Structure of Pre-mRNA-processing-splicing factor 8 U6-snRNA-binding domain-containing protein:
Amino acid sequence: MIQALGGVEGILEHTLFKGTYFPTWEGLFWEKASGFEESMKYKKLTNAQRSGLNQIPNRRFTLWWSPTINRANVYVGFQVQLDLTGIFMHGKIPTLKISLIQIFRA
């Protein structure tokens, strides 16, 4: 499957990897939480706050892979423009849609 997508380097060309300025992909680990996530882990939080923290890794993953996921030849669906942004999406991926609107709305 990896070879069908162009190998590791080909896949990384369609992710946000270039924006990280890491010299190689081998040092990136999704299991590692950010400092913010670590600091909030042991605080007394409401269920809603804890649920929000659980969404951070999912959003991070979705935004990272968004250039790969959001292409017409990968996901079959209608092209739509997100409200109040200039971004076009192919198909329906709610997590990606919400994240992009929050970042790019005017």
Observations:
- The two ends are 38 Å apart (CA to CA).
- Strands lie at 79-81, 88-90.
- The CA atoms of residues 17 and 25 lie 8 Å apart.
